[in-house]
Amino acid sequence: MWVFVNALIENPTFDSQTKETLTLQSKSFGSKCELSERFVGSVMKCGIIEAVMAWVRFKQQETLDKKCSTKRTSKLKGVPKLEDANDAGTKNSSLCTLILTEGDSAKTLAVAGLGVVGRDRYGVFPLRGKMLNVREGSHKQVDFYYYYQYCFTLYCIL
């Protein structure tokens, strides 16, 4: 797919001698690009928007898949406040349950309950603050949301 844009900009300024990045603000271009409704409608009907969006979704999914590698580790390190199950990361990890609590005080209550059911198959991880709705957030927001990163790490080890 190729898109060519032919533009004449008065007195352009660039960030280097190679002229790869234009630094001039758009209000100083000297002209304005106005697309007709007919042109916009034809672009929307041709299917190029759907093709570009499908490619973007594919690339984002590919990035997520790379983060969740096939390499297995026996125990997690670097996830603060995680009380991991004893069987997590072993051949019995598919039988384990991770209890997500709302704050440290709820974690304390859940850990006290582990004394009854045992720590072999149950782990506890406290969440803090307002959770991000990952369905409505962009991939960039989700990527930088550190609790999601911890949960993604916990999910990938299963």
From TrEMBL:
GO terms for molecular function: ATP binding; DNA binding; DNA topoisomerase type II (double strand cut, ATP-hydrolyzing) activity. This is DNA topoisomerase (ATP-hydrolyzing). It is an enzyme of class 5 (isomerase). GO terms for cellular component: nucleus. Its EC number is 5.6.2.2. It comes from the Eukaryota. One of its GO terms (biological process) is sister chromatid segregation. Keywords: ATP-binding, DNA-binding, Isomerase, Nucleotide-binding, Topoisomerase. Residues 1-67 form the DNA topoisomerase type IIA subunit B domain. Its cofactor is Mg(2+). It catalyses: ATP-dependent breakage, passage and rejoining of double-stranded DNA.
